Amino acid sequence: MTSFALDRLLAAKDVVIACGPGGVGKTTVSAALGVAAAARGGKVLVLTVDPARRLADALGVAGLSNAPRRVAPEAFGPSGAAMAGELWAAMLHSKESWDALVRRHAPSARIAEEIIANPLYRNITGRFAQSQEYIAMERLYELHAEGEYDLLVVDTPPSRNALDFLDAPERMAEFFSSPLLRWLTASYRSRLVGLASRPFSQIADRILGTQFLEDLARFFSVFQTMADGFVARARAVGALLRDPQTTFMLVSTLETVPALEARRFVEALARRRLHLGLLVANKALPPSLADPQAARVAERLREDAARLAAGLGGALGGDVRLVERVLAEVGTSFANFRLVATREAELLAELARLHEVFVTVPHLSEDVVELARLAAIGELLFEGAVGS
Amino acid sequence: MSLLERRLLFVTGKGGVGKTTIAAALGLLASRRGRRVLVCELEPKGDLAAAYDCGETSFVPRQVRPGLYAMSMDTEASLREYLWLNLKVPVAGRIGTLARVFDFVATAAPGVREVLTVGKLCYEVREEHYDLVVADASSTGHIVGQLAAPVGINELVRVGAVRSQTRWMLEMLSDPATTGVCLVATPEEMPVNEAIELAGRLEGETTVKLALLVANRVLPELFGRGEEAVFERLGEPDALDALGRALGPSERRSLEEVLAAARLAVRLRRNGASHLERLRRAAPSVPLVYVPFLFGRSHGPRAINRVAAALAEELGE
Predict the structure, then answer these.
(1) Which of A199, A282, A356, B192 has its CA 20 to 30 A from that of B156?
(2) Which residues of A79-97 are buried (b: 16+ CB within 10 A; e: fewer)?
(3) Where residue A52 falls among pLDDT bands split at 50, 70, 90?
(4) Tens digits of residue pLDDT in A202-234
(5) Is A121 helix (H, G, I), strand (E, B) or coil?
(6) How far apart are CA A241 and CA A247, in angstroms?
(7) Please, are residues B251 and A301 in contact by the beta-carbon 8 Å criterion?
(8) Taking each helix axis from N to C terminus, what angle separates A320-354 and A292-303, rounded to the nearest 10 degrees?
(9) Is the pTM of this model over 0.90?
(10) Is the pLDDT of residue B178 over 50?
(11) Domains of chain B (ranges, CATH numbers)
(12) Are A206 and B161 a contacting pair at CB < 8 A?
């Protein structure tokens, strides 16, 4: 595998969806991929869906909005001038996107406003976490359909279940065709509750109260007027995920639990016949930690600290006991990190067996906050330590 | 007041910071202090079972150590129990359809599901089945929704059994002597940003109080007073030459690798410390405890033991 692989992959794809366990640096890696892809040419959009505004932090662009914005080439510093393409960034505003969706599908402006003003609707779009997974994929679909960009890089929301977003479009479609939705709204319209459903409505009454059920029913009978449009749209969004021009980038760290989740992810993508294009092992420790000769030196520093410190004599200046402690500490620290690096090497080998195209991004001792650093990581994705 | 004297603790933080490890260790620590403890994984992924190496957990708590019980949340089982306890509804045959009705209502009226899961924990506390209930709670994005649910439901549902339940839940959740949130962050930029943001949202949107900040996976300080200067000096060419000669002619390159690794360790530690300083400043009145990075095994019972020992020392328990 050579750097050619990612170039070739991106030449054939126009949507990259970053996924993986929480806390592994998905947002940073997707932004980095966007930067490096834009540097190679084309109009690239990075869409983040995280309410913590992580992309805004990483890109140094304050107040990203639902509307894509171009990242000024000057923001990249000296390397910006060499950028062949354009980098755009947008952040998902869940509420704004939901409102737009309702206005598009409601039969009239009046109904749209009635839905948007309903407190239940505000709950669904505002507080309800799962709704974000759907709207993220919906927004991706919309941006893709607009055809403004050569490449879309999307960072997926942190969810209860990292795979929720894959099933979100299907669940949205199911929701509208649910017999329960029909039952609830029908009983509201006709005031006739079928015999079969009577026990349930009685229990529901006792738990939630009749008033609340009526509020629900009223809301859903209005909401249902959008069903056809919503369902068709949800199906189209689902189709985009399976489209041959869409690929997934799985990001993980080389830690036990995330690596295990990454493995589940690979399996889940395969089960759904979704295309895994790239596997990124992020925040890896330097390979020199695995060097046995360095480990021997570290051990000698620790074991022989007193003799070595004495031997250095006055060369270092300062207290010999201080030198001894420093040498021992350096040796111990190496041994400690070597333990971690050994575990990482094993996990990397396991990940590498899962997918042939993988990239290792080194652990950087400082946070990635500048575009120049993002660009450096992006270059690694194209040219760095690649496997297979 | 002492953290473990509370009755209900929610452990939260950004995904991947080690919430389950901290929740499992807090539970273990409290049980060793003679308390009867239930630890509940709210979003069951099997992490709690792995932490205690106890086999699969379920809605029915199982004893994993003396005085220590583990369970995982299950909304449908929780609904079944709720209906039985509150309405004496015979649930055996009906739960399938009822669960679907419930699922539907829960989709429309968020908070219903959350009230049930958080309600189950509150119930265990109220009935004094346990001295302490520790929730391995959701990541920062969802915990506010869970803890704010009783308030939201109170606004939406004006009568009914759920309404009266939310009333006593709110009382329990609002009492800082009973309920507290332990917010976990690793010494990195984003986990600390999210922790700070969450601390603000908990204050603004829920009635639950922040009880503890946990800095997890804190790297050790390599050098003490005066040692840092010696270390810097060690990297200069003449010092490298001298040490390289003492180690043997072919070891010079390896020596540089070892020193580079130490420099990385120092930078990582320093960078982490600056983020923890931000965390401390954001919530100066909340105690902040450090749990060291485990170079060896980082999960499983051995790791939980070590984290519990570190927490015991830090909490002075």
Answers:
(1) A199
(2) ebeebebbbbbbbbbbeeb
(3) very low
(4) 666 666 666 777 777 777 788 788 888 888 888
(5) helix
(6) 8
(7) no
(8) 150
(9) no
(10) yes
(11) 3-222+287-315 (3.40.50.300)
(12) yes
Question: Residue type for A204, please?
Answer: A
HSE at residue B135, side-chain half, CA atoms within 13 A, is 29
* Amino acid at position B27, single letter: G
The residue among B86, B146, B258 with the most chain A CBs within 10 A of its CB, best to mutate, is: B258
Question: Which residues between 107 and 126 in chain B have a beta carbon less than 8 angstroms from any beta carbon of chain A?
Answer: 107-112
Distance CA B227, CA B246 (A): 21
pLDDT at A266 over 80: yes
Residue of B nearest to A130 (CA): B107
Shortest distance between the Cα of B300 and any Cα of chain A, in A, equals 11
Kindly report, residue by residue over B42-87, the tens digit of the pLDDT.
988 888 999 999 999 999 999 999 999 999 998 878 877 877 777 6
- Distance, in Å, from the CA atom of A11 to the CA atom of A67, rounded to the nearest integer, reads 25
Mean pLDDT of chain A, nearest integer: 80
ipTM: 0.86
Would you state the structure tokens that stand for residue A12, as one six-digit string? 């054939």
- On whether any CB of chain A is under 8 Å from the CB of B189, the answer is yes
Cross-chain Cβ contact B271/A325 below 8 Å: no
B134: three-class secondary structure by DSSP: strand
Shortest Cα distance from B108 to chain A (angstroms)? 6
Closest CA to A170 of A265, A238, A272: A238
User: Could you tell me the fold of the domain covering A4-170+244-285+363-383?
Assistant: Rossmann fold (3.40.50)
**What is the chain A residue with the closest CA to B94?**
A200
